[in-house]
Design brief:
globular, 392 residues, Neuraminidase, mainly beta, five-stranded antiparallel sheet, five-stranded mixed sheet, 38% strand
Length: 392
């Protein structure tokens, strides 16, 4: 039979074989290192196989992952809300951490005072005074007993926590205390290091008269800074605790800055120096401290778009500051808004109308750990024992 005029049969095109995963662990680490820093990334990678799980669970890889991406993602906020310190997540699925995952019921007398570098710090107000350092992701707790010289009912406490850049898992806790009586004229400060397991020498500073504010610290360089209000007017000062020298210093604010409670916040400047933001209705002023201890007016900010979103609301209050995002949190009747100080963009993070101080929680989520709420689904992938360590 003639085949003239008929098309010749086509050859089937063969698809290229699927690319195989690299056999070299170093190459694979470099690939995994470039996964986006979302909470779901490493937990999902750890489910591929035992080899991937082993690589992303390695502490050295986790440090490199953090160094590669820089600042960790903001997962949500803890609230100063006795007795639970509720966690409010802000991310969408699959990166959203359910509130129940980071829930903790506190004993009577405990309150949250700081949150930084994936750690949360609580202080127990009743004798015997204790501090609790909590890692919600690793589900680890450390209990610290304050120095005996400061275990006194006549003292009030605040504190701050951080992980040193070269600490490899270690942490530091700064503790400040002041008199309840005598117009609160003496301040004490000391530093705890988990690497040595001891408190530093207690430093003290005498002031004429002041009242501590409940806001948490701001980390400026390697110093913790708190606001103090000087009686009898609305003038504030900054208490600086230098972690390198372990020294206390009081810094006066510009005479023009007189603010009511929750209208003033310590913030870092663009070059990492000391700055403040002063809120007045829907306007604010940012000041920065330059060499020579001189305060300079940096810029004014108008929250006109936020005013439109909060039409009819009371004037906002500053209820938190995210160091990693360089953003303040403003409380209104319409809810809580996060305002980024560089771009001036803002977004609503909750409909909460009641006043609560917000403690931002930013963290790289490790592999080998799920982000579920303990009720099935993407629950914990491996058990992590709770660890209690009491330090005398």
């Amino acid at each position: 039979m003639s085949t003239r005029g008929q098309m010749a049969p086509r050859r089937r095109s063969t698809s290229p074989p699927p690319a195989s995963l690299p056999d070299d662990d170093d190459i694979l680490r470099e690939i995994l290192l470039r996964l986006p820093p979302r909470p779901s990334s490493l937990p999902r990678a750890s489910l591929v196989c035992k080899r991937w799980r082993s690589l992303v669970a390695d502490p050295q890889f986790r440090r490199r992952f953090g160094d590669h991406h820089g600042k960790p993602p903001l997962l949500g906020f803890f609230l100063e809300d006795y007795p639970s310190s509720q966690f409010v997540p802000i991310l969408d699925r699959p990166d959203r951490i359910p509130g129940a995952r980071f829930s903790m019921t506190l004993n009577k007398g405990n309150r949250i005072v700081d949150c930084r570098h994936g750690l949360v710090l609580f202080i127990r107000r009743r004798p015997r005074r204790r501090l609790l350092v909590w890692d919600p992701v690793a589900r680890e707790q450390r209990r610290l007993i304050v120095p005996r010289e400061l275990d006194n009912d006549l003292l009030m406490f605040n504190g701050a926590v951080l992980r040193p850049a070269s600490g490899h898992g270690h942490y530091q806790v700064a503790l400040i205390a002041h008199d309840r009586l005598s117009n609160h004229t003496r301040i004490f400060a000391c530093l705890y290091s988990s690497e040595t397991g001891i408190w530093s020498k207690i430093n003290s500073l005498q002031l004429q008269s002041f009242m501590a504010t409940p806001e948490p610290s701001t980390l400026i360089g390697n110093s913790f800074c708190w606001l103090l209000k000087v009686h009898p007017d609305l003038q504030h000062v900054i208490l600086e605790f230098d972690l390198d020298r372990q020294s206390l210093t009081v810094i006066d604010l510009p005479l023009q800055v007189k603010a009511r409670p929750f209208k003033l916040r310590i913030v870092p400047t663009e070059d990492g120096g000391l700055g403040i933001i002063h809120l007045s209705t829907f306007h604010s002023q940012i000041w920065k401290r330059e060499p020579g201890s001189v305060w300079v007016h940096d810029r004014a900010i108008e929250f006109e778009e936020l005013r439109s979103a909060c039409k009819g609301d009371r004037y906002p209050l500053i209820v938190g500051f995210s160091e990693d995002s360089n953003a303040i949190l403003l409380q209104t009747n319409s809810g809580v808004f996060m305002v980024y100080l560089r771009s001036m963009e803002f977004k609503k993070i909750s409909n909460m109308g009641n006043f609560h101080l917000h403690y931002p929680f930013a963290c790289f989520y490790p592999g080998g750990t799920g982000i579920g709420d303990g009720h099935g689904g993407d629950d914990v992938l491996e058990d992590v024992k709770w660890l209690f360590v009491e330090t005398c």
